[in-house]
Amino acid sequence: MCGICGIVSLSENHISEKTLKKMTHLIHHRGPDDEGYLIDRKVGMGFKRLSIIDLKYGHQPMSSDDQHVSIIFNGEIYNYLELRAELEQKGIKFKTKSDTEVVLECYRYYGVAAAEKLDGMFAIMIYNKVKKRVILLRDKVGKKPFYIFRSEGFIYLSSELKSFSAIPDFRPKIDYEVLDYTFSFRHSPRLSPFSNVEMLAHGHYIEIELENKLENYKCYFSFTSLISEDLYRQYSEMPEKKVEEIFEENLVKSVKKRLIADVPVVSINSGGIDSSIISAIASKYIHEIVLFHINVKGSSETEYANLLKNSMNSKMHVINFDSEQFYNSFEEASHAYEYYMVHPNNVAMYLLSKEINRQGFKVVLGGEAADEILGGYTHLNEMFRRKLFYYKYAFLRNNVFIEKVLKKAAALLPFVSVPGVIEPGKMPEQQCPKYIKEQSLVRKFEFIYNFIKDEDERRYKAFVLYDYVRYLQPLFLRGDKMFSANSVELRLPFADLDLLKITLNLPYKYVNDKRILRNIGKRYIPVEILNRPKIGFSTPFSVPEKFLPFKFHGLASGDLSVRNQISLLSMKLFVEKFFRGYDDL
């Protein structure tokens, strides 16, 4: 994990070295181990390095032997050894053992088509001096942020928004649509809170032609491309044990890929199923793996975390977290997140990464994304049961009295957290454009799953994909920002594309309440952890009193729910820290 910044001039003016270095210094926390710059008249690259692979020779920007192509790269490529061997067979020689050089040579050989070959998390800037082109590339899943700001013939790039405060003419403009979406759904199609800054979409790249001043924006990957009728049929016809074997094999492979490092790798142990299984698998390949646990006051899972620790005979660091720590660290976490804090437990994640850094570690494994790909959320399974209950008895609806009884019985079941997406028309507000837009996205996913005959299962699968496309994106942002703020890289085995391809094509019975994961888990973790109810990462939160009351962009804290107060306050604190004094704020 590192931090990258860049400036591209599409005008007659040269880039400012001073601005580039200021931008880069603002993200020093992402890479305190090394620093580097490439300054050309029309292109500038700034880099801050967190040394994880090839500690001695991974300096960036890195250039080819002929100096024709240069690269800066934030992230990790998990299949870089395989790609290196492939390129060596084609006669390409390497000077370092870094994955950065592999990406560089991969681009030189395959061009932008190299993006499809990369398995990992990344944000990449490539400068081809001969072709006079700049390529901006973001990973398929959306793990690594890549922000873009355009102004008067210049394009500015960074891993974090705070870098743009170094640009003399930058004036952030709050995107009210993002704010509205965030209040309604806890996520937004756009991951930049500013309307004049974009986040390069995951699975996309931009090719900039310097001479023609053209930008070619292209999609090289979409989650929907993973959906396969053939795979769904195969898994439906396979014995359950065989399906479990396939999933377990790929899960183990995913964990092993994320152990590639020239520094020690540690693991989060929340006490829940997901992180416990990841930690247990990792312990098969790391002797006495070190664990980290957050003990949340009033919602402690330390009992279960200790069960795993003792079963693995591992050392575990415990961070106690209560409302006082939440209040004391809220401002720091807000500065790091740079987005609306829809998940107040961001603060706990921030303190966890701080402790990991204090103990001298740089890389940690986590269990996030399992709930999204394996039906771990209660609302998904209750939605399925509710619709199963009501729609399966359609033949009774001709009787008005019976239909009323069925509707009342169905209403007793917990409702999906974003009801307008699944069942439009439930509330008047769901007829507004943003709800209709999200409903349309789910219907699009349903259509892609049209080979599934059962309407309820088809809709369930569509909503799982919706959660991955929408809900997981701010969680990935959290994983990057809360850990990079303390110079730590978070790796998530459940966010692996091979695993996602399997789960997107599994019949409902395997992903109902993580059934397949629970069955596999019997071979790795104590049964008490497997059988415990899901608690979720709760936080003893309310708005810190010292900030109340407050206003931001015409919104008053007293008019909002506690969760939305926290979201708005976090953005207010970030903006005031880095963009103080602008009239439009």
Strand order of the largest sheet: 2-3-1-9-8-10
- Number of structurally distinct domains: 4
Shape: globular
**Class per helix and strand makeup:** alpha+beta
Q: What is the helix fraction of residues, given as a range?
A: 40-55%
CATH class type of the largest domain: Alpha Beta
Can you count the beta strands?
A: 19
Per CATH, what is the topology of the largest domain? Glutamine Phosphoribosylpyrophosphate, subunit 1, domain 1
- Give the biggest sheet: 6 strands, antiparallel
Contiguous runs where pLDDT drops below 50 for at least 5 residues: 388-397, 413-430
At a glance:
The chain has 585 residues and is an alpha+beta fold.
Description:
The chain is α+β, with helices and mostly antiparallel strands and 585 residues long. It has 4 domains: 2-221, Aminohydrolase, N-terminal nucleophile (Ntn) domain (Glutamine Phosphoribosylpyrophosphate, subunit 1, domain 1, 4-Layer Sandwich); 225-374 and 472-531, 3-Layer(aba) Sandwich (Rossmann fold), CATH 3.40.50.620; 378-465, no CATH class; 545-578, no CATH class. The protein contains 21 helices and 19 strands. A hairpin with a 4-residue loop joins strand 11 and strand 12 (214-219). Residues 388-397 and 413-430 have low confidence and may be disordered.
